[in-house]
Specification:
2 copies of one chain form a homodimer. Chain A is mainly α. Chain A has a domain of 80 residues: Arc Repressor Mutant, subunit A. Helices cover 60% and strands 10% of the residues of chain A. The first copy, chain A, has 5 helices and 2 strands. The first copy, chain A, has a two-stranded antiparallel sheet with strand order 1-2. In chain A, α3 packs across α4. The longest helix of chain A is centred in the first third of the chain and has 28 residues. The structure holds a DNA duplex. Chains A, B: One of its GO terms (molecular function) is DNA binding.
Chain lengths: 123, 123
DNA sequence: TCATTATATAAGCAAATGCTTAAATAAATT
DNA sequence: AATTTATTTAAGCATTTGCTTATATAATGA
């Protein structure tokens, strides 16, 4: 891909194109960070896990396996991704690992949860 | 996968498991809808497109191709997914198609944009 | 009408994703 | 120490995703 500005439309607003590039450059860190959170939450299984953790406080992989009717390894692999991203954390009690949300880690997620809980139109 | 409750932990809270299932059942439509939006916005290219549309009002595929340094077909395919999902719409002016956000269609997205614009910690 | 421009669509392919099953860890119980 | 339980990790595989290139459609202008 060429790097120079190349949109050939007669109406193309070169200043707008430059401004857009600058906007993205300025926000690139935020976009990258938020994009990762959205990609994680964009999987239905993970969204359910996050939503339930928000509502119940903490749950273990075995619980999720029951609730979501999925194998424990499948759950465990989803959990790992979210833990790696710093969205959730764990506490051990005997053999059981209780997972919970890392609070204040994602205001975007918290906004989503509030919408889901209110059971409003959420699109 | 078995359908009955099967978590065998001594501490397993059967009422909690039932409550979680009921919660998911109640919110399943919302979860499904929001999950699709998050999956779309969870791609960095699409997130940038949505972000720029929010900021600039409307832009055409050619603009995005320039700004994001990607081929027009690549852009066009991302746009299609978001249009199919009802997140964006288009207006024709001669040969050019101007795309814009469908307002009020996703409050979740709007929340994300406001965070990005403020350039705050967004995780 | 023919060429040009803007966009979309389709086919092909490499990479990423999300499951499965089997094996490894770790803690509790016997 | 050996067994059971909870969880993780790893390997394998089918599906999905997101690009590429080539082709189709649609509008403009010579």
């Amino acid at each position: 891909m060429a790097l120079e500005i190349s949109c050939t439309r007669a109406e193309a607003d070169q200043k707008q194109l430059m401004r857009c590039r600058e906007t993205l450059r300025m926000s690139s860190n935020s976009i990258n960070t938020i994009g990762k959170v959205l990609a994680l939450a964009g999987n239905e299984t993970r969204l359910k896990i996050l939503f339930l953790l928000n509502k119940e406080g903490e749950l273990c992989p075995c619980d999720f396996s029951d609730i979501l009717e999925m194998t424990v390894p499948a759950i465990s692999q989803h959990i790992r991704k979210m833990k790696d991203a710093g969205l959730i954390t764990s506490r051990r009690e005997g053999q059981t690992l209780y997972y919970s949300l890392v609070k204040g880690q994602s205001e975007v997620l918290e906004g989503i949860f509030s919408r889901l809980q209110e059971n409003k139109k959420v699109a």
